[in-house]
Amino acid sequence: MSRQVSILGAGLVGSLLSVILKKKGHEVTLYERRPDMRTASGYAGRSINLAMSARGWKGLELAGLREDLEAIAIPMYGRQLHMPDGSQAYQSYSKNNEAIYSVSRGELNKRLMTLAEQNGVSIKFEHKCSNVDVANNKLNFSLPDGSTQAVQADLLFGADGAFSALRQSYTHMDKVNCSQNYLEYGYKELNIPAGKDGEMMMEKNALHIWPRGNYMMIALPNTDNTFTCTMFMPFEGPNSFEKLKTEAEVKAFFDEKFGDAVPLMPTLIEDFFTNPTSSLITTHIMPWHYKDKSALIGDAAHAIVPFYGQGMNAGFEDCTILSGLMDVHGEDWTTILNEYERKRKPNGDAVAALALQNFVEMRDKVGDTAFLERKKIEKELGKRYPDQFVSVYEMVSFSHTPYNTAIQCIQAQDSLLHAIMKEGDFFKNVEDGRFTAKLDTYITEYHNAVQQLDFA
Amino acid sequence: MSRQVSILGAGLVGSLLSVILKKKGHEVTLYERRPDMRTASGYAGRSINLAMSARGWKGLELAGLREDLEAIAIPMYGRQLHMPDGSQAYQSYSKNNEAIYSVSRGELNKRLMTLAEQNGVSIKFEHKCSNVDVANNKLNFSLPDGSTQAVQADLLFGADGAFSALRQSYTHMDKVNCSQNYLEYGYKELNIPAGKDGEMMMEKNALHIWPRGNYMMIALPNTDNTFTCTMFMPFEGPNSFEKLKTEAEVKAFFDEKFGDAVPLMPTLIEDFFTNPTSSLITTHIMPWHYKDKSALIGDAAHAIVPFYGQGMNAGFEDCTILSGLMDVHGEDWTTILNEYERKRKPNGDAVAALALQNFVEMRDKVGDTAFLERKKIEKELGKRYPDQFVSVYEMVSFSHTPYNTAIQCIQAQDSLLHAIMKEGDFFKNVEDGRFTAKLDTYITEYHNAVQQLDFA
């Protein structure tokens, strides 16, 4: 028996979910608060470039959209580090030449919407959900003409982002736990245009980072040979947005801190004062569903900060898991939504924690010699012991290992690498049979410590 | 320059605050969503009996209501423990015969409202605040006839409890962090009536506890010689509300677990199925104020669980602190509200944590011989070293030491008592000069460890 599905939010996750549900035979209507971004002028939308990795691709595969998207995705095989002294360093992400992919959020969203409509999903734009009567599954919308509209939902998904109306309505119910936490950092987008002959001004196949301790700038490549830069900086304090009020202050700051980038940023001052300074939020909520009637998915269930590039990937993986549960449990939606929450909630918590931790890595540790050395050793360990050791970064970005498993490996990997690095130069040591015998023991100990975890 | 003050909520904290502000020359209007409890029939309101202690009394003193209330307050000098085997034990709260006081929440609230009106405060009942436009300080009320009313506030306080409309409106602003967490326990009120000659059926001047590990019952005395009992129990699990669905199940459970209380509870079955099972919430939010326009106070700022008997006491202390800041800073409300948040937020967090910790103490540890011994030793230490040692319980209940200081003393007191008790029978040991010399050292070490904290 198919259901009438209502989805709040025609963003990335809502659009993907609509296609998956439609392909399984359900009737699906998407409700989107904004106008159609494919036709509306002046659409800005959310901005941080996406880094698509394994979990994202898998979701796209389910929707049959992988090949289509590969054409507009730029592989980034590693981090190109821009040091304060003007020197650069490169750190590859994977031992197997795997990449994360720079994708335009807007372009991806438009294609997913079109695919949804091609599959028979109805999208209702400019439908702003003001609140949901959760017990009765009734949606209240406000429309552009000021009128309101009530809709009786059958099966409802809230894919409406960090400030989800469904999430908000859940929080008013008894025994619903929730939190929202803003980072004391803001972000601002800036641009590096193509050169005068249309050429790219930096290495194309890398994620560029200017690590500066407690703040940083990153840049991701676009298909039009531009780069989108994002500055992450505290709102207040010594190096902060509040200290950059005048053109002279901004110019002096960038000249001093990002000297190699400034010549590539002709519109720096204009961009800085035109583009907003946005904030970054992490949310938690429990439960994620209400009986067999509704559930939260993507940012609505677990809004996270962008520093692991996993926000969209995690949301698409929610869709993959839900799809798998539908295959197993058929039309038993009580079980499907119970199991979805049971399986995904710990992973939502884990990816939120991983994303916060990775901010410290990106803005601070990546500039550190010992850290770069450790990353090289991790890759060598992965090659030497492919069945026993996978670095946490690779688990998160290049595998489908649950986030909650990856995060539980961190401490064991920290101990392992600490022990190995205490012995001196790894790449010299591994020439020595006594060291490699010891290394076998270390790796076996590590593997024993983590193997009871759920890697499936 | 006096201000026009609007206060949301004519509960205990809102009513007290209104009197304090009025006495300082401000115009005050209280908006209360419920009808007037002094005239409305069938008013139930919130139920857990109050345990008034030092911080609460100080707030009442500011309002000039202390003497009036002492007449209806019943001192409880300690805990009367009802063990599973039917035996009883008594544990006094203080080394100085200090008490916490059982007070009727409804009676206290009525008197505070009347006092407010006598002082010239206007109370508008049945004004339910639906939301606040925080930036513009505009209040939107819905009235019983279905109409709405907008009110422009000058200075606004949200004293409207755990589900505060002002708090809710704050959470929609950028950079507001918040959380709500329900305990997996519910509570239900039950009754012990007076005897057939109107006499009290248990010790009057004690807080009765039936500690049972992961659940418990408590009873507080009322002025009409009845006791109000409250059962705290998990919603689900082996001993839980979900397991008590039939009269036979309730009867069997109480007969087995609370054998000595059952003969005193003739309406047990009726009460159990008539009275609701309520939930318990802890909330956090930051910030607590918006510019010089509005602030949260009491449960609206820090809803806590009732196990330390500090909810109302903490709210009244908020009023005391605010009153002191008005005395110092005059009409500089930006400074007053900034300082109020800076001083009180850490204490709100601390009392929330203390309340959660004390649940474990009440339901489980108080039945333990070593714990009772420790409490006796703590009192003896307080007598022998009055300038150096005050137990955390006494700090919280009988002093005005900041909660945040009290909670920071816990670990040091745990170490101290652990060291002392490891030496064997304390009350025998203190006869020995070598032990007391050692004790002097322990106490000096403890005192050095905590003396840099803020006890003022």
From TrEMBL, chains A, B:
* Leading EC class: oxidoreductase
Q: Which domain of life is it from?
A: Bacteria
Please provide the record's keywords in A-Z order. Answer: FAD, Flavoprotein, Monooxygenase, NADP, Oxidoreductase, Pyridine nucleotide biosynthesis
Which EC number(s) does the record attach to this protein?
Answer: 1.14.13.9
Stretch forming the signal peptide: none
The family database entries (InterPro entries) matched by this protein are listed as: FAD-bd, FAD/NAD-bd_sf, Kynurenine_monooxygenase
Q: Name one GO molecular function term.
A: kynurenine 3-monooxygenase activity
| Pfam families recorded | FAD_binding_3
Give every FAD-binding domain span. Answer: 4-352
Which GO biological process annotations does it have? anthranilate metabolic process; kynurenine metabolic process; L-tryptophan catabolic process; NAD+ biosynthetic process; quinolinate biosynthetic process
Its pathway is: Cofactor biosynthesis; NAD(+) biosynthesis; quinolinate from L-kynurenine: step 1/3
Q: Does the keyword NADP belong to this entry?
A: yes
Q: What cofactor is this protein dependent on?
A: FAD
Q: Does the keyword NADP apply?
A: yes
Catalyzed reaction equations: L-kynurenine + NADPH + O2 + H(+) = 3-hydroxy-L-kynurenine + NADP(+) + H2O
Q: What does this protein do?
A: Catalyzes the hydroxylation of L-kynurenine (L-Kyn) to form 3-hydroxy-L-kynurenine (L-3OHKyn). Required for synthesis of quinolinic acid.
Alphabetized PANTHER family for the sequence: KYNURENINE 3-MONOOXYGENASE (PTHR46028:SF2)
Q: Which HAMAP family match?
A: Kynurenine_monooxygenase (MF_01971)
Protein family according to the UniProt entry: Belongs to the aromatic-ring hydroxylase family. KMO subfamily.
Name the record gives this protein = Kynurenine 3-monooxygenase
Instruction: Tell me which species this is from.
Output: Flavipsychrobacter stenotrophus
Lineage summary: Bacteria, Pseudomonadati, Bacteroidota, Chitinophagia, Chitinophagales
